[in-house]
Design brief:
Length: 913
């Protein structure tokens, strides 16, 4: 399942940007430290608490970080931490059903995650004292009072095994497991987090309980609370819940195995059915707290950044591979620097291996330039600032710093990255990127033995003795994001070219602002046969303009501290950006350049085309790709090949993409690009008058040269079907079922059907998820999606589940049974009450995010709607009766019109024969 110093009042002066807790602390609680608006406290039982106050959004995130992961597992215990992650969603000795209670009350999001060094449990919910109290009470039960029943383990074991099987479908995932196992002969990092299959299948519940009672204790945990809450109340609530648990009397042992220095190259070969070629190389590096971590992260960016790193330029631009990347895994104990290369069939593995090692181990011969170092530092700084701009994200992301040894590591690391020099990067490259420190797919004896000695992990005190931290971030305004309040502030302006500019100004945390540009063009006749050309045209928009090449575009994006996405399809093009207020104007100018001045370089065209072909090729043996394609084809039988809405087979996609020429791409852009209609949305912190004038200047004169007419999707009755697709040597499969019906979102049944879907399969509290995932333990993920168009009437409901091929008959039977029960007996009042609250809470939380709100305003504007339409829909949902919901589900969902497609290695396990 699924990441800011005073104690005595009389002696305190408030010196931070955020007010410190100034009242008397709960008994025994001590203020440890503050940094950058984050306050740390310790409790008598060993629990540590981090508070990250943020009044700008109406939500709170509670994240409990346990300093235990697969690193702590001994022989026969692999996967135990991850298995416990699942078990701690079961029942407590007080009768609490954790998973059910989370789905009933969390209303935002929740999950548990496990990695090598830590396990986390978090929930994000609408801010209130009562809900915070509930969350802390639940986490108290989870920490100390879980039942550890054998029958729960039996169910969760099969779910974890299915998650394991899902990962086994992907060569890259399996290769990484094998390489890590070869790189670590003794340390537990060589074992996968999900564990060995037999360990997971055979672990006794008593052993699991011992592991639980040893590590899931207050003195091994850090509670992080981020969001809109009263600090004093939060500390008091923590004292009455997690802080009230007794301090354990056991001695908490820690792993003591150090991986010996590697004494020569290591080799792994993986042979499986597939449609791609992969290479991976890892080099041992020090633990996260080592001072070499910052230059190693800069090194990883220089070599492995997507599209702009040395590996990408050498292998992908050089047409040796279709993907290349590198990343640093900095962990509690010495970790690894990992490089990955993907090739399409026919490309030379020998050439890729030679090029890969020449780039990684040749840094000493071609040292990093100041420009490369500055570029890498800018990207890392941008990613850090964007990640830390939201308190909920902070509450999750600090978990990894806690696991590394201290929550301040993220802050220290940011400062040390800023100080990295080219000499630092060259030094760590020469120190660690050695052949004797390498694990790859080849063994070569060497007489010139070299060893990379990994330094010991330094103490926290040593590493942080000169660390002070930066100023706390600006806080956002407290805004009640109701449709009515939003509508009173939003401003809509018609541009000269027919586009609509939508402005929603609001002071935000760290001054963040989101912008979106959406243009629609073309018509059914003119677009015929051009869908694949359109996709390739959109893919090239970020690869070069008349003023900038791909590298310069990335440099500009990093300098602006912006996250930018630009894409295009047959009927529309879309651009979005998230940045800080100070850089909004230049970010909008860059978006204009990307959309209006693409250069379509020949080399980029060839590379993009090959990457698309490789992606299609890799899907030819994957059940997910094959099943989804086939189901989509069966749900759209009325369209001939070439029509915009036609679903191509994978072979047809390969054929179409292979035929595309650069002239066709340039011609498509010239014929269609420009808005026949569209929207520009800016939401967050900005000056409305300045941005209005700028948007008019940048986009107001841009028009599509083609005639525009919306492509309409017609409804046709779909014939029922039940088909299987064989995917040899794939341990995981996919089940999908769909039913089509006539409906659009102007229907009075819209609200009822949305809530019916939520109950049936649209949430983690739904019938499908509860039956297939929770009760039967057949799948890691199961549910349903509802698609209801505006104006057109081709609606559908699609159900899905991943599962091992041998379990697919049970999955299909469970789906059929739950559909029959829902239609025959209907849903219950309790289900309706919970679903309505969940849906309404989700709408409120979504609107609190600037980017989400911008997307909603844009979507409404397309159909000449305002937030009043959303308010009316929410009112209809709130007023729904059980009879209305059951009637709507029975009216539109015909069990005799269901189309089922499933894929997997059924022949091997002897099912569906």
């Amino acid at each position: 399942m699924r990441i800011k110093r005073c104690v005595k009042l009389a002696a305190c002066l408030l010196v931070l940007a955020l007010p410190l807790v100034s009242q008397t602390l709960p008994k025994g609680v001590e203020k440890v430290r503050s940094s950058e608006g984050i306050n740390e406290f310790s409790y008598p039982n060993g629990l540590h608490v981090l508070l990250i106050p943020d009044v700008s959004k109406p939500k709170v995130t509670v994240n409990v970080v346990y300093k235990v992961g697969s690193r702590n597992e001994g022989a026969g215990e692999t996967g135990m931490a991850h298995l416990l992650e699942h078990m701690l969603f079961k029942t407590s000795t007080s009768g609490r059903e954790v998973f059910k209670e989370l789905t009933d009350k969390a209303a935002g999001s929740f999950n548990g995650t496990t990695n090598y060094d830590r396990t986390t449990y978090y929930e994000t919910f609408p801010a209130s004292d009562d809900t915070l109290k509930w969350a802390l009470e639940l986490e108290t039960d989870r920490m100390a009072h879980m039942t550890m029943k054998g029958e729960d383990l039996a169910t969760e074991m099969t779910v974890v095994r299915n998650e394991m099987e899902a990962g086994e479908n992907y060569p890259q995932s399996v290769l990484q497991k094998r390489v890590m196992a070869a790189a670590y002969n003794f340390h537990s990092y060589g074992k996968t987090v999900i564990g060995n299959r037999t360990d997971v299948e055979r672990v006794p519940i008593s052993n699991l309980a011992v592991f639980y009672h040893k590590y899931y204790q207050p003195d091994n945990a850090v509670l992080i609370i981020g969001g809109n809450f009263d600090e004093s109340k939060a500390l008091t609530l923590a004292a009455a819940t997690l802080g009230a648990l007794p301090k354990p009397d056991r001695v908490l042992t820690q792993p003591y195995t150090d991986e010996p220095t590697q004494e020569g190259e290591r080799f792994v070969k993986l042979e499986r059915i597939g449609d791609e070629q992969d290479l991976m190389v890892v080099y041992h590096i020090p633990a996260a707290l080592n001072s070499d971590t910052a230059p190693l992260q800069v090194l990883a960016q220089i070599l492995g950044a997507p599209q702009t790193g040395r590996l990408y330029k050498t292998l992908v631009d050089g047409k040796i591979a279709v993907q290349a990347a590198m990343f640093a895994q900095s962990m509690h104990d010495p970790g690894v620097l990992t490089a990955f290369v993907m090739q399409k069939p026919g490309q030379s593995v020998d050439d890729a291996r030679t090029a890969l090692l020449k780039v990684t181990e040749g840094v000493k011969d071609t040292p990093p330039t100041a420009e490369e170092v500055d570029r890498a530092k800018a990207r890392l700084a941008k990613n850090f600032e964007l990640s830390m701009s939201d308190s909920s994200m902070q509450a999750l992301l600090l978990a990894n710093s806690v696991a590394s040894g201290d929550w301040r590591f993220a802050l220290l690391n940011r400062e040390e990255i800023a100080k990295v020099t080219p000499a630092d990067v060259e030094r760590v490259a020469e120190k660690y990127l050695q052949a004797s420190n390498r694990t790859l797919g080849e063994f070569v004896p060497t007489r010139n033995l070299q060893r990379a000695e990994i330094p010991a992990t330094p103490s926290v005190e040593e590493r942080f003795k000169n660390f002070t931290g930066a100023a706390a971030q600006q806080q956002g305004e407290a805004f009640d994001a109701t449709p009515k309040n939003i509508e009173t502030r939003v401003k809509r302006i018609k541009l000269a070219n027919g586009m609509t500019l939508i402005l929603f100004p609001k002071r935000t945390r760290a001054g963040m602002v989101s912008t979106q540009v959406n243009i629609r063009y073309g018509n059914e006749k003119d677009l015929n046969g051009k869908s694949d050309i359109a996709e390739l045209t959109g893919d090239l928009l970020m690869r070069g303009t008349q003023q900038k090449n791909r590298q310069q575009i990335q440099d500009a994006t990093d300098k602006l501290k912006a996250q930018i996405q630009v894409s295009g399809s047959a009927t529309y093009a879309f651009a979005s950006a998230r940045t800080v207020e100070a850089n909004l104007a230049d970010t909008l100018k860059l978006l204009r350049e990307l959309l209006r001045e693409p250069s379509f370089p020949e080399a980029e065209f060839a590379q993009s085309k090959q990457q698309i072909l490789a992606s299609i090729e890799s899907g030819k043996s994957e059940p997910n790709s094959l099943v989804r394609t086939e189901l989509n084809r069966k749900m759209k039988p009325q369209y001939p090949r070439g029509h915009v809405l036609y679903e191509e087979t994978l072979d047809e996609q390969m054929e179409s993409v292979n035929k595309i020429t650069l002239d066709e791409v340039r011609s498509f852009y010239k014929q269609f690009y420009g808005p026949a209609e569209g929207e520009v949305v800016v939401s967050g912190q900005f000056d409305p008058a300045k941005i209005e004038a700028l948007v008019k200047e940048l986009f107001g004169d841009w028009k599509s040269p083609s005639r525009f007419e919306r492509v309409k999707e017609t409804y046709v009755a779909i014939k029922p079907a039940n088909e299987k697709i064989e995917t040899p040597d794939k341990q995981n499969g996919l089940f999908q079922a769909a039913v089509a019906f006539r409906l659009n979102d102007d229907s009075p049944d819209l609200a009822a059907l949305r809530i019916a879907n939520l109950i049936f399969g649209g949430s983690t509290n739904s019938r499908l998820f509860t039956r297939i995932r929770v009760k039967d333990g057949l799948s890691y993920g199961a549910g349903s999606n509802l698609s209801i168009p505006t104006q057109d009437e081709a609606a559908s409901l699609m159900a899905y589940a991943i599962a091992a091929p041998q379990n697919m008959p049970k999955v299909e039977a469970a789906f059929t049974d739950e559909l029959s029960k829902a239609l025959k007996d209907g849903f219950t009042q309790d289900e309706l009450t919970k679903a309505k609250k969940t849906w309404l809470d989700e709408q409120a939380l979504s609107r609190a995010d600037e980017a989400n709100l911008g997307r909603q305003l844009r979507s409404l504007q397309r159909w000449n709607r305002t937030m009043e339409w959303q308010a009316a829909l929410e009112a209809k949902v709130a007023a729904l009766t059980l009879d209305q919901v059951n009637a709507a589900f029975r009216k539109y969902i015909d069990p005799n019109a269901v189309v089922i497609v499933k894929g997997g290695d059924f022949k091997k396990v002897g099912v569906f024969q």
